[in-house]
Amino acid sequence: MGMSVLVKGNKIEKIAKKIKAPKGAQVINANGRTLSPGFIGTHEHLMFQMSAGELLTSDTRYFAYVATSTAKKYLYSGWTSVRDAAGNTFSLKTAIDKGIVEGPRIYASGAMISQSAGHADHCLGSNHSSIISEDHDILVEYGDMAVVNGVPKVLEAVREQLRFGANQIKIAVGGGTGSYADPLDVVEFTPEEIKAAVQAAGDYNTYVMAHVYNNDGIRRAIECGVKSIEHANLVDEETLQLMKDNDVWLSAQVGVYTFIPHGYTEDQANKHRQAYAGIDNMFKAAKKIGFDKIGFGTDIITDPSRIDALNDEFIFRQDWFTNAEILQQATSKSGELLGMSHRFSPGKIGVIEEGAVADILLIDGNPLEDFKILQDPENNLHLIMKDGKIFKNLVK
């Protein structure tokens, strides 16, 4: 309480009870507002905020315009960093970094990599055989997804994302709610294929994150060296303990499962309901064994209106966690998770401490007491600073 923070360049230089402002410095009096690190999303999809039909029929220019709008909404909701969990966001990341458009700092994964009949394979029964014709859906053509089989092709796909500038690598090792050919209980990629992805990523000083809901897939991923499990809604206590023992992160989401994404078939909707039903057991088991390597994210896709309510995720987690625990997940915990990648790292994020990156919010009210204030970022986020630059300042 009552501390001062000195920002120089893009870093927090000093924190003390009293700091003499350097000549020419801008002085902002918080006047009792809550100072917080910027929020961090560990599983976001900046490219996919359109209906399922639009995803499979739109051109790259439309994708870019939608993603630009989405990125700005993230930043002005207080999210200063996001790990994009699938999508060709490399140009968007460059445009944000150069100040051409406004948005959060992007930790890009590039194309999500899966096997045929896996989570990235959106070819329908009406499509020609991809073996015979090499036909793929436009998400593969646009570089948002990659469908490969066998160790050599996995290595090629991983190395291509690294060449484009990926911070980390995303693979799918189990079924998904939004894909057509894989129930949630299937396991995808052989151990050899997963190990190849992990080695290729590790050679470039980064790690692999894996989409998977079921225990068998999670265990295979852990045994092969994956360091971040995405979703895991159907996990049991024993598998969570294995994650804990191996310092593997859980990148979990809640809000996305409270609605059925636009364009889902009945089969997809049923898988989505199955995933939602597993969340309670997942978090209760995590609390029981003291597993706290839990990231914060939304996984929102196909419904742009939900992006206007990003901060509802704070509310959705209150059935299992205190406000303090949730804020920690959305800041320091997620910052630690993203920090596993040493590619293009800006420094330490998600904390207010000397030497950390200056991603700072001033909040009108105390989110430790009431998360509802975060649901109205336009009026209650009075200052948004990312990388030492002020994007919004309502402080008088």
UniProtKB/TrEMBL annotation:
Pfam family, one: Amidohydro_1
Residue stretches making up the Amidohydrolase-related domain: 35-390
Xref: SUPFAM superfamilies: Composite domain of metallo-dependent hydrolases, Metallo-dependent hydrolases
UniProt keyword list: Hydrolase
Record keyword Hydrolase present: yes
GO MF annotations, alphabetized: hydrolase activity, acting on carbon-nitrogen (but not peptide) bonds
Record's protein name: Amidohydrolase family protein
